[in-house]
Amino acid sequence: MSYWLVVLPSFAFINITGQVLDMAKPPQTAALLKAFNLCWAGMIIAVTAVVNFSLSAATAVLLGISLSVVPSTRPNSLVKLFAVGFLVTLTPQGIMALSSRIIGYNNLLLWARSAIWDYEVVGSYFVPFVWMVYLPLVLQGILSCILA
Q1: pLDDT in tens, 125-143
Q2: Domain range enclosing 128
């Protein structure tokens, strides 16, 4: 149930946004946004590799998978729907919704409490990294996919 509470409003927003943005846009906007998104992702991964290689490797794999499905050319609507749905699934909210189905809601709460405790007590920067670096990159990928 919680998975659909995350995914359905996202698709409704994406559908409305796609219809509004489709009215007036230059044809190269999606390709330019994808190029800047990949450039920013590469810089983030390179800088993070110096500080924390395992976080950088995980980010590179997740962003490599998620940003590779963003089409560079104008796709048909089925390909666009698949790419947007896949990117919505790879947002932190989508990952947590899928994880709650796989490992259970209580185990997911224990993991989330542990991550928040690591941030507050130990000073780990996983939580701010996910919300301030990873999420904007995936949301830009979704926007680029909508504009394509």
Answers
A1: 888 888 888 888 888 888 8
A2: 2-147
